[in-house]
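About this split. The held-out portion is used to measure sequence recovery: a designer receives only the structure tokens and must propose an amino acid at every position. Recovery is the fraction of positions where the proposal matches the reference. Here is one held-out target exactly as it appears in the evaluation file.
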């Protein structure tokens, strides 16, 4: 007897029926992707809402887990992302793109960790723990990125982060989004 279960979890935002952009190597964000209303009280020029969606299925036979599959994607949420046109620049857009790239990097790291797993009776808990850990790491990196670049204002720090993330994405290229 096979039993199949499916769970969907997300990082940051998962808004039902909201259109999303999946991360692709060949696509770079444009200001037209940012559909949300700007927060006029915020000092931010732009906000990128992105996250990792995660689902998995587990097959069981005679009460024993025999296999599992995962679905891990980096998404950008247009309706939750916004910018102030009067203050926006290509430099700020590059900063926002890197936030999305950081999300993709962590989706790749997530896939890498999952690829090393063996089928066990507690695979659901193991997958959920990896998901939780990845989300914590992603949040920490996103915060460090903003802090170290002073939200894109420090151009030399911005350049270092762009180089670093580019190299990390290459390092995990085997696990990139399709």
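Reference sequence for scoring:
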């Amino acid at each position: 007897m096979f039993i199949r279960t499916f769970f969907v979890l997300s990082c940051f935002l998962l808004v039902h029926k909201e259109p999303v952009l999946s991360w692709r190597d060949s696509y770079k964000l444009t200001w037209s992707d940012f559909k949300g209303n700007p927060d006029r009280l915020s000092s931010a020029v732009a906000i990128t809402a992105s996250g990792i969606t995660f689902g998995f299925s587990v097959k069981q036979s005679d009460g024993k887990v025999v296999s599992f599959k995962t679905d891990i994607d980096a998404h950008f949420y247009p309706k939750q992302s916004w910018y102030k046109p009067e203050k926006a620049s290509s430099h700020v857009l590059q900063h926002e793109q890197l936030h999305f790239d950081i999300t993709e990097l962590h989706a790749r790291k997530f896939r890498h960790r999952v690829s090393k797993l063996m089928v066990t009776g507690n695979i659901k808990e193991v997958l959920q723990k990896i998901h939780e850990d990845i989300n914590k790491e992603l949040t920490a990196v996103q915060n460090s990125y903003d802090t170290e670049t002073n939200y894109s204002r420090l151009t030399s720090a911005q350049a270092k982060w762009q180089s670093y993330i580019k190299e990390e994405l290459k390092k995990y290229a085997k696990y990139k989004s399709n």
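Annotator remark: Residues 1-15 have pLDDT under 50 and may be disordered.
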